[in-house]
Amino acid sequence: MAWTKYQIVLAVVLVVTGSINTLTTKWADRMTAKGSDGVERKFDHPFVQSCAMFLGEMLCLLAFEIISCIYYSRTENVEEPSILRGRRDYNPFVLLPPALCDMVATSVMYIGLNLTNASSFQMLRGAVIVFVGIFSRIFLHRILSIREWIGILFVILGLVVVSLSDLGSDSSGSTGGTTNVILGDVLIIGAQVIAATQMVLEEKFVSGLDIPPMQAVGWEGVFGLVIMGLLQIPFYYIHVPPPFSDNASSSLEDVPDAFAQMADNNLILVALLGTVVSIAFFNFAGISTTKEISATTRMILDSVRTLVIWIGSVSFRWQSFHYLQVIGFIILLLGMCLYNNILVPQAFNKIKAMICRRQSSNADLEDPLVSNQPADAHETGAIN
Fold first, then answer.
1. What is the pLDDT of residues 83-109, one digit of tens each?
2. Does the pLDDT at position 172 exceed 50?
3. Element (H, E) at 33
4. Beta bridge pairs of residue 62
5. Residue-wise over 233-254: b if at least 16 C-beta within 10 A, else e?
6. Quick one: CA dihedral 250, 254, 257, 263, positive or negative?
7. What was the pLDDT predicted at 265?
8. Are the beta carbons of 26 and 313 closer than 8 angstroms?
9. What is the pLDDT of residues 177-228, one digit of tens each?
10. Residue 221: what are its φ and ψ, rounded to 5°?
11. What burial letters (b/e) apply to 174-203, b meaning 16+ CB within 10 Å?
12. With 0-12 CB in 10 A as exposed, 13-18 as middle and 19+ as buried, what is 166?
């Protein structure tokens, strides 16, 4: 079935805004500016960037309410948009535990992104499949098929190859050499444990409530922004060594230093605004793609997004080309397709069916009894 113009726009918006989200975050990490102490250094404020991401998610709630008001204010009988469908009689605090997981996972991933390459960051997020599969088996008592276990093994192999590519690549685009790049990779993979916990919590406690997805994302953004904003206060007084801090106070987070750097280099503010806007449109396009087309299409488009981020990172010379990363990405993609029963199993079954048909056809041609049967039958009929 051909896509409509609206579906094509959704797909393009999903890939573009999803790519911009990661690239603008990494762009901010690479920029330098004078901080509150007058010293010029790189912008190293992952928790401020987390707040920007949650602000973008919170905008989804604002957009949901605007769309809802426009729809319900109409007097004519118009079909309810799919994005508004769902229950409204639920307690928003049921989304607090997933929001807390999102907050921790995002913050740790942004620390990792500051230490490693943008393409590795995006690829290593595929590790969430491994932990989702394991946690689903333990906590949701879901039996994984052999195909899913094979998919998990492929994902693990892909993660190893991507990490090895970071060992052999030029780490000049990261903050401080190969050791920090590998530390960043470990942090990103570790954050997927929390991200997987979030998904399991949403499946166990949220999915049955039939909450409109865009509204759920918005509420998680509200909780994340409020809690992360409050945490900036104690973070200012927690002193940590490099590479976990590179700000004026050598603290876990220094908001005044972040604003001072934004004021000194306005491009940093542009990058953060790019994160806010892109994450809002990315969530809207992602939810709409799942509803209008399918979750399978969304996963394929996410893989395209990873490819775009990798091409962008190499084109901007934020990292060097390494063939192992390409191999790792392909293996990761195969693992994700196997786990989600997308493309690969179907292609394998089609090839298997074609081989069976060809073998059966060859066997019929080679079998003299089969090949002579019509002639024999004709001759027998003629005699009778």
1. 888 888 889 999 999 999 999 999 999
2. no
3. strand 32-34
4. none
5. eebbeeeeeebbbbbbbebbbb
6. positive
7. 96
8. yes
9. 678 888 999 999 999 999 999 988 887 777 778 888 889 899 999 999 999 9
10. -65, -40
11. bbbeeebbbbbbebbbebbbbbbbbbbbbb
12. buried
Phi and psi dihedrals of 33, rounded to 5? -165, 160
Characterize 369-384 residue by residue with b for buried, 16 or more Cβ atoms within 10 angstroms of its Cβ, and e for exposed: eeeeeeeeeeeeeeee
pLDDT given at position 149: 92
* DSSP single-letter state for residue 141: -
Cβ density class 41-52: b for 16+ within 10 Å, e for less = ebbbbbbbbbbb
Give the pair of three-digit tokens for residue 220.
């998680």
Three-class DSSP category at 13: helix
d(CA 154, CA 161) in angstroms, rounded, equals 11
Tokens at 299, concatenated: 């996963």
Residue 369 pLDDT? 53
> So what's the pLDDT on residue 173?
47
Asked if residue 271 lies in contact with residue 29, where contact means CB atoms within 8 angstroms, the answer is no
Find where tokens 């973008």 sit: 56
Report the predicted TM-score, pTM, of the whole model to 2 decimal places.
0.83
Percent of the chain clearing pLDDT 90 (strictly above):
46
Residue with tokens 């050598």: 250
Residue type, 39: V
Closest CA to 3 of 319, 300, 331: 300
Q: Nearest 5°: phi and psi at 2?
A: -70, 145
For residue 74, the one-letter residue type is R
Q: What is the pLDDT of residue 233?
A: 95
How does DSSP classify residue 3? Answer: P
Which amino acid type is present at position 44? D
Helices in the chain by DSSP H: which ranges?
A: 5-30, 46-72, 96-115, 118-124, 128-139, 146-168, 177-201, 213-237, 255-264, 266-292, 295-315, 323-339, 344-366, 368-383
Amino acid identity, residue 92?
A: P
